[in-house]
Amino acid sequence: MMKESQIVPLTEQELEELEAQVGSKLDVYPSQLNYNIADHGFDYQPVAFMMDEQERCLLIGRIGDTLATPRIVSIEDGQLRQRPLLPSNRRGKLETAEGYATRKNVRLHPYEGDNYELVAEIIENNALEYILELRVSRKERTVLIYDTEKRIFTVDRSDSGLIDEPYTKFITLHEPLTKLHCIVHKQTIEIFINDGEAVMSTRINTSESADGIRTSAVHGDVYLKLWKYDLKDA
Fold first, then answer.
1. Could you tell me which residues are beta bridge partners of residue 43?
2. Closest CA to 230 of 67, 106, 107, 114
């Protein structure tokens, strides 16, 4: 985690961009909060806690040089939750799917794009591993892997077009995986796990042709529902 003295404050342009994105005026959150709110991925840097017009606490951060999706921060039943704040007017075309992920690595059609919101709800998991691949081309992909028995969730960016190390990071979940909420942009991916139990973010550097989504399972199958929204610019 970054110390507060290391944090580069928001510029006026970034603040205007955020307010347009969330559709609300933002003020500095009135309470003193520390920045030890974990993002278990690679590149997330917290910048500020802000309050919107509904008096929600928002964590603002950057992934590399790019503003991350604002995160609604709350404490529920003693547990920290971080959820993405995406106003409904930023959502475009909706596509849905439902079915089994099996050992066959299937590219989902017409699920494609480089700027979208994807929600995967795990209804039944009978596999040793569930795998979801984002921003896929012939040679590129960012891979999300869930080990069912150990409850280990891994992000593998070995084929994401980066030269940075490390290429993989993982987290052990408190509860079995039931939901993934992914915010995918041209140069970043944010993964909100189990309704905000954990978050993992990463930069990517894939080509424009890397617009596919694939899913599969290892030694068994996973029944899931998918929702995908194209995202409009703020």
1. none
2. 114
Condensed to tens digits (0 to 9), the pLDDT of residues 55-91 reads: 889 999 999 888 999 999 998 888 889 999 987 888 8
> E strands, 102-174, where?
106-112, 116-125, 129-136, 142-147, 152-156, 168-172
Calpha distance 234→89 (Å, rounded): 9
Q: Are 174 and 165 in contact (CB under 8 A)?
A: no
210 plus 100 within the same structural domain: yes
Q: Is residue 4 part of a domain?
A: no
CATH of the domain at 153: 2.60.120.560
Domain that holds residue 171: 89-231
Q: How many degrees, rounded to 5, is the angle at CA 79 between CA 74 and CA 82?
A: 40
1 domain-assigned: no
Assigned domain for 191 exists: yes
The predicted-structure confidence for 38-47, as pLDDT tens digits, reads as follows 799 998 998 8
Q: What is the pTM of this model?
A: 0.89
Is residue 224 in some structural domain?
yes
Q: Is residue 5 scored above 50 in pLDDT?
A: no
In sequence order, what are the residues at sequence separation of 6 or more whose Cβ sits closer than 8 angstroms to the Cβ of residue 13? Answer: none
